[in-house]
Amino acid sequence: MEKVTCFRNIGELIQVQPGGETPKLVKKTRCALLVSQGKVDKVIRDSEVNHHDFFREVDLEGRSVLPGLVDCHTHLIYAGDRKDEMEQRMAGTSYMDILKNGGGILSTVKATRQATEDDLYEMARQRVLRMMTLGTTAFEIKSGYGLDLDTEKKMLRVGQRLRKNLQVPITLTYLGAHTAPKGKTIDQYFEFVMEHLPEFRHLADGVDIFCERDVFTVAHLRRLFLHAKLVGFHQLRAHVEELSHQGGCYNAARLGAISCDHLEHGTPHDIRALELSGTTAVLMPGVTFFLGGKKTPPVHAMIEAGVHLALATDCNPGSSPSYNMQTVLGLAQSLYQITPEQALIAATHGSARALDGHKNYGGLLPGQRADFIVLKTNDYRDMFYCFGENFVDQTYSAGKKVKGKKDPVSF
Amino acid sequence: MEKVTCFRNIGELIQVQPGGETPKLVKKTRCALLVSQGKVDKVIRDSEVNHHDFFREVDLEGRSVLPGLVDCHTHLIYAGDRKDEMEQRMAGTSYMDILKNGGGILSTVKATRQATEDDLYEMARQRVLRMMTLGTTAFEIKSGYGLDLDTEKKMLRVGQRLRKNLQVPITLTYLGAHTAPKGKTIDQYFEFVMEHLPEFRHLADGVDIFCERDVFTVAHLRRLFLHAKLVGFHQLRAHVEELSHQGGCYNAARLGAISCDHLEHGTPHDIRALELSGTTAVLMPGVTFFLGGKKTPPVHAMIEAGVHLALATDCNPGSSPSYNMQTVLGLAQSLYQITPEQALIAATHGSARALDGHKNYGGLLPGQRADFIVLKTNDYRDMFYCFGENFVDQTYSAGKKVKGKKDPVSF
């Protein structure tokens, strides 16, 4: 007989079903969640619990249970912090001046190159555990702070160790084309990335590129994607239309990208491309918030067009040093003016769609991983209503309770 | 001999000194805080601790210590919640339609009138304790959800009970002129407020009025303030220039208001008035955030003019259901583009100035109440850098550790 754990006395259980046109949030009250071999078996009425004999029973005290949050865009493997830069920016120093003074992304590259693989692993492991206690149960992690072969590979090996040791869904992305390292032009460095791309095939699940003015062009994006497909990468991702409109979204969608990320400067043409290609739009309000930007992606036009939306932290030391998908939910409601339901669907089913196609997690549906969070209250809308507090009481990954640090990690 | 408690092994201690033109943040490292009879005695070097003999020693493990946050504008005594309204608003329902369907402020008035004084007290007490565990050590609380004599008095009696039982600095404000109750015009209700004003003299420290289009006019504000002065109220406050420009700020400042609150539509003329009168400008970014507004007060022009700034939650069930001054700090940095230092000064010294004139608290200075917070890290900028997490490990009020609930309260 299979060992079934029964999570009983659930006040409100939220599942996200794929649905026809759009995914749907389904709410069940006074129920119990049955978990077997780390997966969701089924949901029964709480009144039926006593008619069965379970291997283990866990009383959830009438609380709210949601699918674990999925963070489908992070740069969480890095060394150093950029708090000084934050202060300088608020005091009026321009980003270009910060760069000239040795700040910006190249300062993170420098610190990440210097860190040992073990140190980098330990810092990243602490971050992942912290994020899990805050409610995240699946991750995407990018390289991109090495900009040389050794460090890019070191970052991805750290990602693989995290995946193996923590037994948590982690999708790894090779973001060699993040920016050019000191001493090389964008064009020089891009050829280097192209030449060595095959070496990363077994270290990462996909590739990504930062397509932006003064960084990589649409022509670079097209060449990288075509080459990556030939080499055998299945997942193509791109940072597009963030600070300006370059045409990266349209081209990435045409070439079959699984996700197009940022999109603050997305146009109706881009929305049409995402709609036709089925590419997920990954939105990251934490960046807009942290950098004090005013421009947000055309979220409502995307929703009307039926584009699949996902939410992510973009966790990184420069533009979004947040570990907290709950914060992202609150920011999405406020900055994009979407409902708690829309935000929650995007942060679970939507983000899962951008990673594994929402087969194995993201909806808390029978057959999926038993990745879920138990809130401190019995109404998931409290997370949105009382913004800025931590509403996650417990996180379960494959049916097991996450024992992470309750405190913020040092940076 | 006096009983001195020594809080030792402080990694970073922040004090806010009044300074000449502008208040100044002073940072001391590796030090100890001496507290006697609930007040700050002095700060010594940590290396000197062993040369003394203290009544009690508390090891703060190298953490950061800040003055307790001061929340100088709240409506935290209320019954009911308005989560449904939040959802409706995000789904596109207009505020006027919400009002017509029985939502909005009048739904809070209804619930608050129906609540017993004991229930109202218990709900408010839980909120205050929750706010204290999140770092707030002094409060302003307004009435204004009664709009009749009985309930307005009931609210203020609850405030007095909180002050007496919790032994925490609480400033009480009579906000009879919040809006008109059902069945009365603004003019009719205003005359009622004026007539009964003397009955509130011993229940509240000051008066407040919501001066706004379709609510109370500048003429009402002037009449209320002059009458309040005659009756003997010392503190005049006003909700001004929030949704439109009415001239309330200029008039309130001229009549000697201690604070002008909101100010999203403030003009250079208003800034000049605040500068000349010394009135504190109370800013509440939580409202802008929660309502998804784009317009922020002219904060940088205020700073340049030397206007005294304060920060507050505006804690209320409709436009800012937040208990968390840490969230307000992060929002202020992002929405106003001010530095961590500027935000922290406004949320401590600045807010204290809007309440008791920063004599008794707000700076963690010798002679002031020993109201302080101990962070989970050793750098107060972490609260700003890693927005959306709770960085407060412990809160001390008059030198005593606050034992509040660690969980969010139900609404």
Structural commentary:
The structure is a homodimer of 411-residue chains. The radius of gyration of chain A is 21 Å and the shape is globular. The first copy, chain A, has two domains: 4-68 and 363-401, Urease, subunit C, domain 1, CATH 2.30.40; 69-354, Metal-dependent hydrolases (TIM Barrel). In chain A, strand 7, helix 5 (149-166) and strand 8 form a beta-alpha-beta unit. In chain A, the strands form two sheets. In chain A, strands 1, 2, 3, 4, 5, 14, 15 and 16 form an eight-stranded mixed beta sheet that branches. Chain A is built from 14 helices and 16 strands. In chain A, helix 4 packs across helix 5 (149-166), helix 8 (248-254) packs parallel to helix 9 (268-277) and helix 12 packs across helix 13. The longest helix of chain A is centred in the middle third of the chain and has 18 residues, at 149-166. Chain A has 411 residues and is α/β, with parallel strands linked by helices. Chains A and B meet through helix 1, helix 10, helix 12, helix 13 and helix 14 of A and helix 1, helix 10, helix 12, helix 13 and helix 14 of B.
Core attributes:
homodimer, eight-stranded parallel beta sheet, TIM Barrel, Urease, subunit C, domain 1, about 400 residues, eight-stranded mixed beta sheet, 2 domains, alpha/beta
Q: Spans of chain A with pLDDT under 50 lasting ≥5 residues?
A: none
- Oligomeric state of this protein: homodimer
Radius of gyration of chain A: 21 Å
Reported for the largest beta sheet of chain A, the result is: 8 strands, mixed
